[in-house]
Amino acid sequence: MDRDEIIRLLATTDADEVRALLKAADQTRRRLVGDEVYLRGIIEFSNHCVRNCRYCGLRRGNKALRRYRIPDDEVLDLAARVRDAGIGTVVLQAGEDPAHTAEYICRLVRRIKDATGLTITLSIGERSYGDYRAFKASGADRYLLKHETADPELYRRLHPDSDYDNRIRCLKWLKELGYETGAGNMVGLPGQTLATLADDILLMRELDIDMIGIGPFIPHPDTPLKNAAVGDLGLVLKVIAVTRLVTGNTNIPATTALGALDPEIRLGALASGANVVMPDFTPAHYKQHYEIYPGRSRVSSDIREVLAGLEKDLAGINLCIGQGSGGRRNRSDG
Ligand code: 5AD
Ligand code: SF4
């Protein structure tokens, strides 16, 4: 599929054509990655951030936000809960917190690895090559770093203090170091076009990204973009579907942002190419302050209830919960 064809598909409003697109993505997903939905337990272990991304509630300019760091012993307990829930992989996510020295993160990763044996995914932003290498050596297996948008000019406008080229460099380093690497973008950013979204998808194919998080932009009231419109959910589904068709056997979560806007649409994503769900293990009294965008706390924090509900929902669309860590399948398995 070339750029023009992707743009044409994303633009279509013809109901039959949209239905056919989502169905084709579902079939491709079942053929290449099966009908299992893989779970990742996520722990949001700090909401401190030195950056000032214009869309995000954790930006350092947001003085209204209560900041927290979860002490490492508690992070370790939460990781044990992920394992006890039968989930094979934990995602440690935080803002770019200056307290997270490389030594600190390495020690935390090592402790979790030794105590739980879980597959460990880090999502703590842009770091040096040396840091990424040290995290890997300490037991980190995967890394999520969304590229956010493949339009360098839009990237510059949204990120007053970071650089598109460095973002891409980080993604290349992560791949080079052998991480299963995640990227992804927001749909509905002010100033974005369908061509931008096509470029997002093609960029991820070009970088051979393994995990792809696609979610709607949701305006946060304490950010400069508070008056911008929310991303179109129908368009998010189309982007997910096209991404599945273009990238084959990647892991694509039905993102929390999608579920926050509309729990029903999350199932729609899982029936249109997405194959991963990330249940949140952050205790509610912290999670309420991990306010990247509004609406996150609507998601229940009783993990057994979440998993039972999910299993039932998945059965309704002929999918089931996968066991193990759900890494990207070898191309030759396909
Ligand atoms: N709406 C949707 N997603 C957002 N993110 C940050 N702010 C928003 C927002 N307002 C996403 C970005 C980032 C991750 C931390 O959350 O993609 O990578
Ligand atoms: Fe910080 Fe990430 Fe939010 Fe940017 S998007 S302000 S780096 S938490």
| Rg value | 19 Å
Please indicate the count of domains. 1
The separation of the N and C termini measures: 19 Å
- Can you count the beta strands? 9
Kindly state the mean pLDDT as a whole number?
95
CATH class: Alpha Beta
Strand content: 5-15%
Q: Helix- and strand-based class?
A: alpha/beta
Principal-axes geometry comes out as globular
Query: Any low-confidence stretches, pLDDT <50, length ≥5?
Result: none
Count of DSSP helices? 13
**Shape-level CATH architecture:** Alpha-Beta Barrel
Helix content: 40-55%
Largest sheet: 6 strands, parallel
Strand order of the largest sheet: 2-3-4-5-6-7
CATH topology: TIM Barrel
**Distinct small molecules bound, one entry per kind:** 5'-deoxyadenosine, iron/sulfur cluster
Care to describe what's here?
The protein is an alpha/beta fold and 334 residues long. It has one domain: TIM Barrel, CATH 3.20.20. The chain has 13 helices and 9 strands. It has helices at 3-11, 15-33, 72-84, 102-116, 129-137, 152-158, 164-176, 194-206, 233-247, 256-261, 263-270, 284-287, 303-316, and strands at 36-39, 41-46, 89-94, 119-123, 142-144, 180-187, 211-216, 276-277, 320-321. Strand 6, helix 8 and strand 7 (211-216) form a beta-alpha-beta unit. Helix 1 (3-11) packs across helix 8 (194-206). It is globular, with a radius of gyration of 19 Å. The chain binds 5'-deoxyadenosine and iron/sulfur cluster (SF4).
